[in-house]
Specification:
The chain is mainly alpha-helical and 86 residues long. 51% of the residues lie in helices and 12% in strands. The radius of gyration is 20 Å and the shape is elongated. The protein starts with 8 loop residues before the first helix and ends in a 7-residue tail after the last helix.
Length: 86
């Protein structure tokens, strides 16, 4: 038995907006990322992340010997031009 509902475009738009709000509230834009996660996030090889870190051309932090990256800092870095050559 099929059920058919007639809903307005306004209703669909409100549902979509609410869904977007809920998703946005669940994404932690300032979470810490490992080298592997940063490479995946920036869609590049890990070797590029290590090279940029070694050259001090990408924002990063140390936890002992472990490299960490903040998602928000990577976003700002990309928007400012990213790893363009000096």
């Amino acid at each position: 038995m099929a059920v058919q509902l007639d809903v307005s475009a306004e209703f669909i738009e409100r549902v979509a907006e609410r869904a977007a709000e809920l998703l946005a509230s669940r994404v932690n834009v300032d979470e810490w990322l490992s080298v592997q996660e940063a490479a995946h996030y920036l869609r590049c090889p890990r070797s590029r992340i290590y090279a940029l870190t070694s050259a001090k051309r990408i924002p990063h932090h140390h936890d002992g010997s472990r490299l960490l990256f903040r998602r928000s800092e990577l976003d700002a870095w990309v928007l400012a031009g990213g790893g363009r050559r000096p």
